[in-house]
Backbone:
């Protein structure tokens, strides 16, 4: 009579970032061998150490097998059918300021709602936008430079700060860490680089937007963030892609390093194209994210809102080396239609009195499969370590599923490890209660889901919490049937 | 025939020969009931007689299948309206078991409800200050603590607190027809008095209240104009408040034996 039909009418909410920008691009032909790796390095005029590093990673990658342990299913990826480098074709010289950036590109970001111009200033957000393989514009460079903060594209960092890059690259996620990280190490084309010098509190939120535009293109960005002694920084990334029938690969690597008393807060709002309601197309999001609390009293906090991608394979992790260091992971993962998400976190306790928190909220709708996979590992050295893990799953409708795989390895008897888990269905009772108060089915579902995610949303920087909430409502339009 | 139709138009709620089933089982088997503005009706009956089913069917719960009859609400076909439309039109159900919605602020839900109703009536949304003033006043009336402002919907509420919260919502939404499904169950005497005070404050010539209850106790505080006994899916006896007292004395067996 009411709720279900109402909700079903809403099924098939369209992806709002699915447009393609018609822009000339400079691409390598599809396929991958050593010459492609070398060509990428050459295009970016990289120093020898980086080319050597890439080639080593590539050779290692060829000996590796694609992982199959995740609870996801997809047709084998043909790695020879992917374009590994695609850049918007620009006049011979790269743009030096926003004014020189192709207006079509800026219009694209405009459409995405990215605050690149004045809106950025108003929001006080510095944005580095990565379009396919290259970084297009970084705003607020100067203001940040005054504070001593380096925030630039990875390519610029390689050119301008090669010693910093060489010192930290691959120290958290080694080139051969896993299949996708090795692939990324060989072919990564750009990404963001942040260095916050000792004692500096970064004066604004830093933000990167990634967008895959060209067809059959993989995006392999690499982000490296270093917070030196006593420094702190908050960083946000957002992601979108056009709607295409074929799957596109996104294999990023993010490395965070926090030295003594440093803090890094890394937030993600991921909205890659998830494929259509029949499961055709969409991004394969196979990402390695890891932070190392290298120094004493350091803290790394991951917050993610994952609503997009056909398949998500992602476990933002913390290696807690420094004494008293803290690792946190707050996650909302939404899977609708045929989306598959296998996500969670790893907390590796090495130092004494290290502390970690994992809060994971999984929401499944349609025929989606949502898996939480987490590891809490307490090494013998981690005396007094503590972990608290809470994994909650919410099911919308009868055809979706949720799995939880919490792994724990505790090798120090003084450690405290707590785990709580729950699975609930979005209650017909809850829905009817709201309807009976005059609230529409759509608003009711949003309200109930937001309530479920509240503890995670409050970890997001204020200006993005609203965006995340909106994204969630879009992703779940018509999700209850 | 004209008489019946005229009655249906003038009444707030006109139920004619209503039957309904849930999970393949016939529960309501021809209910007739007319409720006019300004009246308070009590529907009593033994467990399983169909009291709650009647309340749920009127509110528009999906799992209940209407198999016959009609219901007019202010002369409109009630079944042509979705649950949320019925609510916005002024039909309120006080739930027997109010559900918890974790993380959703109690006041936020109520504000959304009030605004949905105002929007449907073409009125502007209530502003935050005005709303807070209103809700503080109603909370005071219902003797509820300030913590209700910040807690999740029914989250961790005691049984009595949940029922009081239902009445609070009713007072804010000011429905034309309030159907209160066993609002008295699980209340101690003090809470019962507060809840009754809330219900009585809503009584006026433009509104009506239908009390669904198992016991006569509530009717000492909210005195009904009419009492009906629902048994076996039909209203088998109607009367004034003395009927409730008689039921209390003689038990439901008395009515059922008369019916047979």
Residues:
């Amino acid at each position: 009579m009411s709720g279900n039909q109402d909700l079903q009418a809403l099924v098939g909410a369209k992806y709002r970032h699915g447009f393609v920008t018609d822009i000339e691009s400079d691409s390598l032909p599809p396929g991958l061998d050593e010459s492609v790796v070398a060509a990428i390095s050459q295009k970016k005029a990289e120093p020898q150490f980086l080319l050597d590093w890439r080639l080593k990673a590539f050779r290692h990658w060829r000996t590796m097998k694609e992982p199959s342990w995740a609870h996801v299913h997809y047709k084998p990826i043909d790695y020879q059918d992917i374009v590994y480098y695609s850049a918007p074709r620009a006049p011979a010289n790269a743009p030096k300021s926003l004014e020189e950036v192709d207006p079509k590109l800026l219009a694209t970001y405009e459409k995405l709602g990215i605050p690149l111009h004045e809106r950025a200033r108003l929001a006080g957000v510095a944005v580095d936008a990565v379009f396919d393989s290259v970084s297009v514009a970084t705003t607020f460079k100067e203001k940040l430079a005054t504070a001593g903060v380096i925030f630039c594209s990875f390519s610029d960092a390689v050119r301008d700060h090669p010693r910093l890059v060489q010192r930290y690259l691959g120290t958290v996620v080694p080139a051969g860490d896993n299949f996708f990280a090795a692939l990324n190490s060989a072919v990564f084309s750009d990404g963001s680089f942040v260095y916050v010098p000792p004692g500096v509190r970064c004066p604004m939120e830093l933000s990167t937007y990634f967008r895959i535009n060209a067809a059959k293109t993989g995006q392999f960005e690499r982000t490296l963030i270093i917070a030196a002694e006593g420094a702190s920084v908050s960083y946000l990334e957002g992601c979108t892609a056009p709607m295409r029938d074929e799957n596109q690969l996104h294999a990023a690597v993010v490395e965070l390093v926090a030295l003594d008393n440093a803090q890094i807060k890394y937030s993600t709002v991921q909205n890659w194209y998830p494929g259509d309601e029949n499961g055709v197309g969409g991004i394969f999001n196979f990402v390695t994210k890891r932070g190392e609390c290298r120094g004493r009293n350091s803290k790394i906090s991951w917050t993610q809102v994952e609503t997009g991608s056909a398949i998500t394979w992602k476990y933002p992790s913390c290696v807690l080396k420094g004494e008293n260091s803290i690792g946190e992971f707050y996650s909302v993962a939404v899977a609708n239609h045929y989306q598959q998400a296998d996500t969670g976190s790893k907390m590796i306790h090495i130092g004494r009195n290290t502390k970690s928190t994992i809060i994971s909220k999984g929401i499944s709708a349609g025929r989606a499969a949502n898996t939480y996979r987490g590891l809490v590992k307490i090494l013998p050295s981690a005396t007094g370590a503590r972990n608290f893990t809470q994994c909650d799953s919410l099911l919308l409708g009868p055809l979706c599923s949720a799995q939880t795989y919490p792994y724990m390895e505790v090798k120090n008897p003084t450690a405290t490890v707590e785990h709580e888990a729950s699975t609930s269905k979005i209650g017909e009772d809850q829905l009817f209660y709201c309807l009976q108060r005059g609230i529409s089915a759509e608003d009711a579902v949003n309200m109930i889901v937001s309530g479920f995610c509240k503890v995670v949303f409050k970890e997001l920087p204020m200006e993005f919490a609203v965006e995340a909430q909106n994204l969630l409502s879009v992703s779940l339009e018509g999700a209850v049937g | 025939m004209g008489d019946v139709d005229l009655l249906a138009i003038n009444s707030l709620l006109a139920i004619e020969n209503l039957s309904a089933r849930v999970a393949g089982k016939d529960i309501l088997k021809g209910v007739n009931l007319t409720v006019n503005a300004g009246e308070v009706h009590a529907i009593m009956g033994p467990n399983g007689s169909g009291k709650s089913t009647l309340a749920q069917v009127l509110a528009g719960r999906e799992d209940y299948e209407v198999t016959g009859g009609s219901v007019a609400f202010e002369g409109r076909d009630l079944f042509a309206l979705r649950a949320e439309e019925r609510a916005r039109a002024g039909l309120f159900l006080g739930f027997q078991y109010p559900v918890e919605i974790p993380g959703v602020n109690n006041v936020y839900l109520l504000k959304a409800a009030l605004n949905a109703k105002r929007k449907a009536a073409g009125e502007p949304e209530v502003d935050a200050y005005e709303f807070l003033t209103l809700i503080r006043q109603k909370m005071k009336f219902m003797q509820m603590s300030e913590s209700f402002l910040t807690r999740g919907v029914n989250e961790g509420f005691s049984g009595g607190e949940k029922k009081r919260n239902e009445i609070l919502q009713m007072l804010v939404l000011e429905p034309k027809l309030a159907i209160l499904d066993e609002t008295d169950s699980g209340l101690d005497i003090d809470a019962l008095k507060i809840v009754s005070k809330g219900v009585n404050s809503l009584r006026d010539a433009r509104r009506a209240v239908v009390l669904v209850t198992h016991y006569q106790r509530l009717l000492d505080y909210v005195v009904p104009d009419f009492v009906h006994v629902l048994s076996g899916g039909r209203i088998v006896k109607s009367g004034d408040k003395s009927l409730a007292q008689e039921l209390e004395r003689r038990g439901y067996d008395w009515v059922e034996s008369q019916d047979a």
